[in-house]
Design brief:
Glutamine Phosphoribosylpyrophosphate, subunit 1, domain 1; six-stranded antiparallel beta sheet; alpha/beta; 4 domains; Rossmann fold; single chain; seven-stranded mixed beta sheet; 24 helices
Length: 637
Amino acid sequence: MRLSGVWYFDSRPVPASDEAWVRAGVGGPGGRDGQLLGGPGLWMGHGPSLSARDSTGFAAGPDGSVCSWDGRLDNREDLLHRSGCPREAGNLEGTLALWLYRTRGTAGLRDLVGDWRLVIADASRQVLLSGDYAGVRPLYYCRTDGCLRWSSSLSHLVRWTGRDQLDEKYVASFLKRGSAPHLTPYSGIFPVPPGRVICVSPETVLIRTSWNLPVDQEIRFQDPAGYQEQLRTLFREAVAVRLPPCGPACAELSGGLDSSSIVGMADSIATSGHEGLERPVTFTYTHEGAPDEKYVKIVERARGMSSIRLDLEAYPYVAADDPGDGSPAWWGPRLQELKRRLAAIGSGVFLTGQLGDFIMGNMLDDSEQAVDHLLQGRLRDALGEVYAWSHALQVPIYPLLWRTVRTAYSPWTAPVEALAADYSPGHDAPDHYLTAKLRRISMDRDAAVPEHSWRAASPAKRSRFRGLAGVLDSRSLQTPEAFVDISYSHPYTHRPLVEFMLSIPAGEVCRPGEPRRLMRRSFSDLLPPAVLRRKSKAAYTGVYRTALVPLASAMLAHPNEIRSVVRGYVDRQSVTERLERFVQGLECNEPQLRQLLLFEFWLRKREASSNLPVLPTAATLSDRTERVQPSTPDVLV
């Protein structure tokens, strides 16, 4: 499931070296080959898919437009009915994407629901790069004065273009906030932002919005039971569309409500008589004294299954020799082992519970629910709401009341607890350990990419929409590079489910002392009672320290060799003081310091292998890469 391509604006013949890089970018695992399509100044390629749910291929319109598609389209039947496209059309998903684009322009791509990415070479001499609203399947591009190159692999595009100079805006943002929206570590190489379309012509690069937050959408049922029924329906759909029609899906199982619900639903669907579906294979991450183990065993007994356990001491949070490839990345050893295990099982699908905490309302404090009462002049109801949250939280009423007033009558927006509990994307932390140069850079917010419309939401919902916008822009849901050939997916990001949960009254989702209120009611027959009642959440603080203390000690042993200091990114004295406090177990803003440790060892690995690989040539690659002509469906005439 790889995309790669190049377009020369002057329609010159594509050099053999570029064709070789396109070939290299779409080769699949085990020597499997992709397909290439050429035109004046253009080479596009896509790789083979490991998941039977996914589709890859080319489609074309009668005007010469071509779409290279990779992904899973969940609303294909609806689009087939609307378009009148014959089922026999080659690369049906790409054909439907082209139909939407030709019918409604870039706005039409909003109707593509699923995990996907695409490249459209338009007959009007522009190339469009886009992906799903959550950015699950990454796509990167590099535009020069003469051409555009793109790839679904960041490391491949860096080697191809030679653009390996670090972008200091990325460095400043990553070290301060833990993410760098709309940037990669490399100057001149950019990601396709979630929910956007990159429109490249010989003259310009334009960024258009294909999906935005449903800030003006509201759903209310007369019967409260309707919320439970709809949530159950949408969640079942979210899991079902991700299950392969043959072969097993693999899934994480932590014993929490999110992962347990996914495993329970997947197992329920597979055992309910659907021909070809297999029961899920589950993976559990364990460590000494892991509090999750108790709940994992409860789920295993309830479903009659046994998880494959990975010891996080053997596959740590980060290792000095595996801090990421194209960009800094956590859990490299674990991801490599998962990739190996999935290949042995013969599975191309991996499901996670990411975004479940946020979407399902795992919040102890959602006192913003009082804001609507206040804005509507119902002062007594507003005070009652704030008192109820104060009582449930066992905190004084006055700070909550002030926050309610401030939210109602000013642009100020509180962070979302379900995201802020961890080191969340977009979370600003003190940056005193950055050098003055990087501090100035970190204050420069690039407005080139249109932001999501969270500011247009009602005051009571603004923080929730802001939180989701931060997650999406950080690209924290995207497939890790190690899983480039795996259908890595998150049922809780299923767009109809997300839009539903954000559009219903907040009081249905959670109430004082009742986090995940709607979820617990809707999934009462899906989860074992002990898991359904669970309110704790395992912390990985000990696991993090076990992996990171040796790295911190290695930096302290040779302070003059700290690469982040040598490059002028961070202040030596501040960093060494914080590293010493970290090793001693003292307060040091550990979440932010983790980012520095990861980045430092990524820098070291990068410098150790700084020589770019030899440029591939056609002779060094398989001669079997298929060159195809895309089908031209009559429906697009």
